[in-house]
Amino acid sequence: MSDMRDVVIIGSGPAGYTAAIYLGRAGFEPLVVAGALTPGGQLVNTTEVENFPGFPDGIMGPDLMDNMRKQAERFGTHIVWDDVVSVASNADSGIKTVTLDDGDVYDARALVIATGSNYRKLGVPGETEYAGKGVSYCATCDGFFFRNKPIVVVGGGDSAFEEADFLSRFGSSVTLIHRRSTFRASRIMVERAQRNPKIDFMLDAVVQEIRGDENGVQKVEVRNTATEKTSVIPANGVFMAIGHTPATAFLNGLVDVDSAGYITVDGASTRTSEPGVFAAGDCMDSVYRQAISAAGMGCRAALDAQAYLDSLK
């Protein structure tokens, strides 16, 4: 049996919750499929958020997402803590069918896809073997376990620098390894790290192998891309901050995506190639990738969805 809704929102980060707030206030009582394991998106794994407008003293990521959830519920949003396994659209009626992992099925006149993205893996020997035994993709989740131990962070963007700064509170040292000689990170993040005496840099360098024993990660082999020389540095924690993969595979061709899997939309709108399906946040944004830009796109997706639902009447 299925449950008919005006609109289902898949995803519960800033984009999904903002879309729910707007659609709820418009009287559509949206259903949010928030996810079973990681509701709230990547911000639930973030410490202090300093750049979200309205919080001059900053706010913890989990607190920000909890506030958004409560605000969405205040305006009539219903939340299901499960994962979507498939989505389909009826060519004749235009009705979208959303199937959840527990077998529940929801029909909807409109969909908002706000599933964000997943951590990208490095793909080197030892990464899978030592996942959870020194290899991590979440500094705020695991940093505490490496108190007074050497730590490596791989990456060169804002996320890598944020993680390096955070991990310097715990580790005896933090070495940031980046494959280029320049960084993608914002200037303020780079300068903050350069002033931190516990953070060192290995540039023009790539991780070749992660090594360890029964106790976990012990060292990392690094290759200099300019000289081709390799070196081995001690490390008990290796944190990957090398980007993300959009969480769009479950759509199985329902909407058009680019070569990297990001959902493509019509111009400045959030309309996808499938009528009645809208996309917002990191599942369609490979450029800005900020909480505030995701929230803004959630607003736009809600307004586009509302216009579509009004047109059906």
TrEMBL record:
Catalysed reactions listed for this entry: [thioredoxin]-dithiol + NADP(+) = [thioredoxin]-disulfide + NADPH + H(+)
Cofactor (UniProt): FAD
Keyword terms, alphabetized: Disulfide bond, FAD, Flavoprotein, NADP, Oxidoreductase, Redox-active center
InterPro entries: FAD/NAD-bd_sf, FAD/NAD-binding_dom, Ferredoxin-NADP_redctase_2, Pyr_nucl-diS_OxRdtase_2_AS, Thioredox_Rdtase
EC number: 1.8.1.9
Top EC class for this record: oxidoreductase
GO molecular function: thioredoxin-disulfide reductase (NADPH) activity
SUPFAM superfamilies, per the entry: FAD/NAD(P)-binding domain
Cellular component, GO annotation: cytoplasm
Record GO biological process: removal of superoxide radicals
Residues in FAD/NAD(P)-binding domain copies: 6-298
Superkingdom, natural source: Bacteria
Record's cofactor remark: Binds 1 FAD per subunit.
Family to which the UniProt record says this protein belongs: Belongs to the class-II pyridine nucleotide-disulfide oxidoreductase family.
Complex formation: Homodimer.
The protein's name: Thioredoxin reductase
The gene coding this protein: trxB
